[in-house]
Queue: 3 jobs
Job 1
Amino acid sequence: MADVKPTTARPSGSQGGSRAGKPKNTNNFLVNLTVVIVCIIAAIVLYLYVLGNPSNFADGASRHTPKNALGTTYTGGWVVPILMSTLLTLICFVIERALTIFKARGKGQTGEFVRKVQYQLANKNVDAAIAECDKQSGSVGNVMRSGLLKYREMISNPDLDTDQKVLSIQKEIEEATALELPMLEKNLVFLSTIASCATLLGLFGTVMGMIRAFASMAASGGGADATQLALGISEALINTALGISTSFVAIVAYNFYTTIIDGITFGIDESGFTLTQSFAANYK
């Protein structure tokens, strides 16, 4: 099954945005539900009118003797459109996650960006450090920018001692992180679920195909019609292939995205440590 590892994730581009609340969660649910429903409808249409087109079969509308790959896939039975809808849903969320996560990575290497900010802070040039965050334009840059704004505010604050100022900066970074990261893993649950369920659906289709094959043998008293027997075995193998291939794509996509999210999370942790250590060293 899927190698599903827990990650910490959150939304890109939350700078200046509002906290996620019930209305936003409701909208996300409705959008996701709409995507799933559209994929189910598209899968049924493809199954009936593309795969099931009489031109894909040697016997036309009877649809018993496929003459190409489309017709062969159609013979997989009613589990095929379910697996197709799963695959279409997977493709939609793989694309959606790619758009969000790659945007959250920002521009350039995170390590190089942090070093540039460290250099500017060492020279006590906070505005230049903020400009570097604007250039980075990713999750790490957004969190760092929020911390730097508080950093600049604390420099001229005469009412707090150094430890209190560092705690204030740290709190600001934690709040910015809480806004920035959760959306990154928002729809990864679809990938992890599909990774497990697609294989099970494929096995279910396999069992149904084998039942059909052995039922045809039983009905003919052990001398099953070769066509019916072949259809049952074909149904079993087609569903297995669809389920395994869908699960494979889901596992690869899930682990690829979680690896990127882990890198973003590490960059955010590093940037927070940089700010607090820099302030403690430069403004004792």
Note: DSSP finds nine helices and no strands in the chain.
Job 2
Amino acid sequence: MVINMKGRNRKRKQIPPKAPDRLAVLEMIKELEREGRFDVDAEDDPPTIPLLPDMVDYLKVRPDSIIKRKTAYMIANRFVDRLIREKKLVIKKVCGMEYLNNLESGAVITCNHFNPFDCFTVERIFQRSEQYHRKRLFKVIREGNYTNFPGLYGYLFRNCDTLPLSGNKKTMYNFLMAVDAILQRGDFILIYPEQSLWWNYRKPKPLKNGAFKFAGKNHVPVLPVFICMEDSNRIGPDGFPIQEYTVFINEPIYPKAGLPEREQAADMRDRNYDLWKNIYEGFYGIPLEYTTKGTGECGSDAS
């Protein structure tokens, strides 16, 4: 008699416990939602070193910037390829790619912000589009991510066509000039108008006006992108299911002619929020409701 020992010797895969720091972040998100503080990050940001004008080449025109950009994208693409291969980043489906493919002008791309990898997701979709090789995608990031974020992420933050914000007036002047130049020459800028990162938060948050002001000023559309999530059957090292992303690219929102700049931005912001709200309710099959008492506004006049 032959006994198959293979099954007996196989070790049962251990499921890691849910990481205490992730559980703390989820509790903080609940608290922030109850308090209506949607624009506050749920995790502690690294300390911010002031970004001075000579520390950043926004348009990446200096010879050293060009070389670092090429190297950074080579590293980033290999890194994302590995994430996808190991199923740590799962882009399950992309809807509405034609809206991205058909854009002829520059555009502000808006996206909900719930994970550092959502930037990689938008970048990879851009690389799969018909716009790749003839246009560039810039990404607005916070000051501290550019000036003092360590390791691999720090290198990518500084060199992969990023546009860091700054508390320095001269640097911000250069930032605003770069935004205008990028949009007017026909390239794209990714902006997170929620102005905060809440880990795996599925609802759209109220939006700030900044992204829509940039679009209106430069007479370009906003391209709303909303990423929905589903639990996969794989558990990450933090003990939580790895998420599978369904990416919805929406029809571009164009500025309404004749409106004052403030009203024009608010109109585009409201339409963007309504699109995200409809996608959320349609995908998850539930109404969009917040635990915040009295929350009914979709945005703020703050940039």
Note: The radius of gyration is 21 Å.
Job 3
Amino acid sequence: MKKIFIAILILAASVAEAQVVTPQPSPAASVSTVVGLTDVKVDYSRPRTKGRKIFGEGADFIVPFGKIWRTGANNGTKITFSDDVTVEGIKVAKGEYLIFTWPGATEWTIALYKDIKLGGDTDSYDKANEVANFKVKPTKQTEKVDMFTVNITDIADNNKTGKVELAWENTSVKFAIGVDYDAKVMKSIETSTKVAPGNYANAAIYYAENGKDLNQALVWINEAIKINPKAFWYIHQKAKIQAKLGDVKGARETANESIRLAKENGNDFGYVKLNEDFLKTLK
């Protein structure tokens, strides 16, 4: 009898642990990218419009103007930064934050919140846990977005800024993220040029393009050329550094040498024209 009782308990426990898994009405999603050298990731849930009115004035709307919104469904929306960043110009330390919003017709208030455990519990929101609070302008979507969607977009050519977009129904709002990768690059240069001479060229180009010590850049590009004397692409970079140093005669001679080697190579990868265009800028 005792064995039968134990077997019944085990069966009951296994039944209690079993769960029926079905698709979620607001499925989980994530989006991530690298801005500069910083990983930016957003985890969120995606409610659907289901024919409802989403943003507007009054209780008839799912997200009434002026009311706090968990920004998505379920546990809200979490954003993660692998490095310190700025968000709309506000310094934000690396880490995880919830995104809360207060939508409006002409302006949204957005806050980053450091207590991740709050989840989507807007009733327990504590302003003391805000790390950033700012306002942005909404725009109208030309095409309806049926499911709430987060994008990381508008990454600048210099990789120093990007934007997070929140889009649902016919509304889109974006907020800017700024990153600073200079310290990481400088540390990488210091380490890599000691152990891998082939990295001298990358270090030289970074220095030349970011307003750093041009004499040091010239030393490094010369080291790279010593390793690969026929690298006409390195020689082109040397000409540009010489020009920035005011050595127009040397820059002209170096650019012509790059042209000669590029033509000898058979495939110049566009460097003949690059050098010719560069020579036209020298006065």
Note: The chain has a mean pLDDT of 90.
